[in-house]
Amino acid sequence: MTSQADPRPLLGEPLPLDLLDTHWIEGGRLQDLLETVGGVEIWLRSAILDERYRPERADAALRAALCTTREAIDAVARRPAEEESRFALNAVLAHGHRELSLGADGVHDELVVDDPVWTVPWLAAEGYLDLLARVPDRIRQCQHPQCVLWYLDTSRSGTRRWCSMAICGNRTKARRHQQGRAGDRPA
User: Fold this and answer.
1) Is the pLDDT confidence value at 107 over 60?
2) Is 111 a member of any domain?
3) CA distance linking residue 168 with residue 185, whole number of Å
4) Phi-psi bin for 82: left (phi > 0), alpha (psi -120 to 50), beta?
5) Where is the Zinc finger CGNR domain (predicted)?
6) What is the CATH number of the domain that holds 166?
7) Rounded distance, CA 16 to CA 74, Å?
8) Residue range(s) defining the domain that contains residue 31
9) Tens of pLDDT, residues 60-88
10) Torsions phi, psi of 166, nearest 5?
11) Lower Cβ count inside 10 Å, N or C end of the chain?
12) Considering the domain boundaries, does residue 3 fall inside one?
């Protein structure tokens, strides 16, 4: 795998939101980490992912499956009431399922996918359903107008507004301060 550092401004979100955050704005332009197989390798290295599911290498098929899944999660996040959005996410989920069984050593939970390329994308889609079931009101998109990042609001009060206080929060406060100062000037 490539040894380049992950260039994204926000890392460490739950897998489905981390996948959404492979799109970000830098220098006024939309960036896409999944644009290349090398970018997929960078993402796989930094994503919070159980090692047993981490693929040995990335390829064009995995890149395509991840992009399809990112689009499906994004569609549901933006338009949850639309049937077409749900259909796209359900199409990703149709590539796999979990098989539960009880063995002498306890409960076994096995992920079964129709093609290994769908393992990580399926886990991201499953993770999004888990977030929707547990904390739907905590899935947020940054409120800064020039930011497209998503995050899980884990603040105690549940009032987090920005992907990062250090990045978008400070930009917003600086803009408000400048607007306030402009309003203080005599006409």
Assistant:
1) yes
2) yes
3) 26
4) beta
5) 138-179
6) 1.10.3300.10
7) 9
8) 15-183
9) 999 999 999 999 999 999 999 999 999 99
10) -70, -30
11) C
12) no
- Tokens for 68? 């399809």
**pLDDT band, very low/low/confident/very high, at 174 (cuts 50, 70, 90):** low
**How many folded domains does the chain comprise?**
1
What single-letter amino acid sits at 54?
A: R
Amino acid at 133: A
Contact 39, 21 (CB under 8 A): no
> Is the separation of the CB atoms in 158 and 137 below 8 Å?
yes
Coil/strand/helix, residue 34: helix
Residue with tokens 């460490």: 12
Residue 44's SS3 state is: helix
The CA–CA distances, whole Å, from 112 to 85, 103, 118 equal: 24, 18, 10
Would you give the DSSP letter of residue 1? Answer: -
Where do we find the tokens 């492979």?
A: 22
User: Which contacts (CB < 8 Å, 24+ apart) does range 42-46 have?
Assistant: 42/2, 42/4, 42/5, 42/6, 42/7, 43/6, 43/18, 43/19, 44/1, 44/120, 45/1, 45/6, 46/6, 46/8, 46/11
Q: Residue ranges of the alpha helices (H) in the chain?
A: 15-20, 37-46, 60-78, 83-93, 119-134, 170-184
Write down the pLDDT at residue 164.
86
Tell me whether residue 4 is in a domain.
Answer: no
On the CB side of 134, how many CA atoms lie within 13 Å of its CA? Answer: 10
Beta bridge partners of 57: none
